[in-house]
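Dear colleague,

As promised, here are the two records you asked about, laid out in our usual form so they can be pasted straight into your sheet.

NAME FIELD: protein one
SEQUENCE, THEN STRUCTURE:
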Amino acid sequence: MQRDCSEGIGGQEVSQGKLCPSPLPLLHWPVSLISKKLVIAAIDFANPAPLMWDFEHAPLKNELLERYEIVSLMPSECARRLKEGSADIGLVPVAAYAQMPSARIVPGCAIASLDHVRSILLVVRHAKSVRGVKRVALDTASITSATFTRIFFSKLWKTAPEFVQHAPDLEAMLRVADAALLIGDPALLALEDREARAARTGERLEYIDLAHEWHMWTGTPWVSAFWAVREAAFGPETVSRAQLVEDFIQSRDHGETHIGELAREWAGRVPLPSGLLRSYLTENIYYFLDDACLEGLNLFYRYAVECGALQAVPELRFL
């Protein structure tokens, strides 16, 4: 069950995935007592950037780096590192969480979308659209979006194509399949190049936003990832559970107030204009693991089991 406002976290309270004001002082462990840093496996895409604000920017960056060590990885690699114990905290795909019985979810934070997300695309070449697709190339960085794709084909589109793993290169994917799943920055770049590609090739492809399809079908948000923690990582020389939750929720809240700066930063890292990145981070990505997201998440797990993509519906275990 998700914590409610009666359960104080770090001197503050959580409701609907957001912090509620509280007169109680925040709980901070003295840095001198923390000698073992927890390793964070973060995702090296633009969409988690607001969640990472305090970890990467002053004035709190240096303080947090006394408590945490950060490594940037692809989504599937974050899950693997957390599962094997070489990372303590990970921004893990929600499908991977189903295989982590000892992990706990950090309440309040998510990578989700309330409708169009733009960075989860099924690109279809077949003239009969998705119902004519025989083979789908799945981005190797994807775990959750690949599972959503299997759900769509099995339960909504009622077909059974072959699924193959492939590096996120649209042209190469379409040479071996008649549909390609792209996620994250490669999806944003493919969508931005849509008209230019059509002009270059004379071919019109169908670009399906899977978060929008999910919302239209189920009425619930699309949930892609959340912070998960190894319970065994905590000890007398690490940050406390309450402090960790406070650190991550506070970073999310500060990140949401600096979207413009993040858009300019990421425009220097990926070939996309800062205005597009700003609208993407504010209009397409939703960072709160609230009740509506939990409803969508539970539905995702149930459908994934029903179509054979997952073995069992996992219990949502929170810190």
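NAME FIELD: protein two
SEQUENCE, THEN STRUCTURE:
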Amino acid sequence: MSQTRTLWEEGREPGRQVVALGLAVALTAVAVDLVLVGRVSLFFDLCFVALCVGLALVVRPTDFFTVGVLPPMLMVVVFTLLGLTRPGMIAHPDDGVVQAVVSGLSRHSGALVVGYVLCLTCLAVRQRVARR
């Protein structure tokens, strides 16, 4: 009888590819928000939380650290890009880059915290399952 792998044992993608995937999906969510509402909205927050969980599930065990520190960096990078190009999507249109990033992070801190906690929880469960 063959033993099937559980959800917690499936992830096999290298850390670099997971980082690239995370950035691509986050920027895609921002682009969709831009088209739909013209600013970063709840849609981005929900996509970000789902993305954090998804990345934690697809990464290979040797690259857990990479994904473990990724969510805050991912949000900062995305908001810095927005602050440089379209600050009005995350803050007041006249704000500078730093102010736009700080405003964006404060407005979307709930999604960051939830996404980060779920990401770390998934990684912890995967680590525990791998030890068995």
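A couple of things worth noting about protein two: The first helix runs from residue 15 to 36. Residues 9-131 form one domain.

Best,
R.
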